Amino acid sequence: MSTGTRTEHSARRTRTMPTAEEDRTSRRLAWCVAHLLRHAPDHVVTDMIGRLDEPAFKYLCRDEWLSASTVTLLLRHGSAADRTYVARNPRVVGRPLPGLPGPARYARRRTPPELLPVLRTELGRDPGEGPLTAPELIGLLRRHGRRGPRVPLDILTLRHHPDPELLLAEHLRRPLPAGSVEALLLVEDLPRETVHGLLTTAAADEPSWHRPAVRAVRMGRVTHEELVAHVAPAHRTLLLTDLTGARGLRWTLPERTGMRTAVARALRPLRDDPRLWAELLRHAPAFSGTLPVLVARIVRGTLPEPAAGPPVPGLAEAVRSVAPGPAEPVAGVDRELALASLAVPMESGQEDIRWVRDCLARGLLTGEDVIRHKAPACWALDEDHWLGEVDHPDRHEPPAPVLAARAEADRLFALALGSDPDAWWRVAHALPDFAGTLPHLLLRVTEGGSVSGRP
Questions:
Q1: Residue 98 above 70 pLDDT?
Q2: Contact criterion met (CB below 8 Å) for 169 and 200
Q3: CB-neighbour burial class of residue 53 (10 A; exposed 0-12, middle 13-18, buried 19+)
Q4: What pLDDT does residue 100 have?
């Protein structure tokens, strides 16, 4: 994060108390930026946060719904004061912040007495005689990580000398069980390269194979974009877009949309070419590398004929869920009326929400329609303005309109803004007061026209 930029903005501000109008402006900018950050690449997120002045930055960290990747980047590049602001945000959950569960919670864990005889037999010595060497630790993690992270967490409470380089080399040679990888992510302060390497695995399928990836994001170790860049094999990255059928630890709805955003960004070189998407589905089951590498080789046409193998359950559905070309609702007078109503807010917010939800339930509108036609654009990006406020965004029901709306917003932002930080900032600066739809705003910004409040 370009904290210097934000510091310079802060230094230029006078030390007088902000007026009520300035305070409202800062809060509204923070609200709009929070919605934009859900769709922006990591380097754009870092740049936009660095451009905020101090009041807007404080409101962003303290009061807004922040995506998992945004929190991770704030913690990674921010100061102790920034961490305090985020820790005070009641809408940030599951992150290793002061007062929230994290490594300190597991440092108080004690190895159960009934496990010690088992470890004594496997080590050939008393575990209390001295710290576990790196080979001993790796051997224990291999044997005890197939039933979740509980026993590996107990093992890691013993004195040990972790060797990140040896740990990574052994994992790449023969992957550790998912439960052991998850325990390492929870407890050990590993270098980022080691964390990335632990997510690069071709281990035999386990029911809990997805848990280390979810845990890495939720612990603030990686962003969704970094997860897509390092998880292997590629078909697992695609399967991570939908873990609704998985048991235990899985994505919340905001985390799931963040994962779909990152995967869609990696798949963008395939464009709308059905041939390339068919090649993705054909090669993904047997490809051992990461998804971005697979996509690049598909586009270049340098992949050999895939080896025969069993189909991957759920892969076809995962690819279809992120492929372009959603089905349009049946046209009719009722649909035209519903589309027109999106541009004209009703007398009360609750009445507006009831109308939109009813149209969604009757199939007259989709999430894509809301993003394209609802005005103002800032309301379209905030599901609370058309699905109703909830105390946690994971409880939006039904989730399908949210997924569709986020995907359409991703597509529009990618087409109009790409990865240009200056263009994203112009949209952020214009969004709070713009009265038109999101496509209209993006057109104004990209064509360099007026971005006044008039639609």
A1: no
A2: no
A3: middle
A4: 45
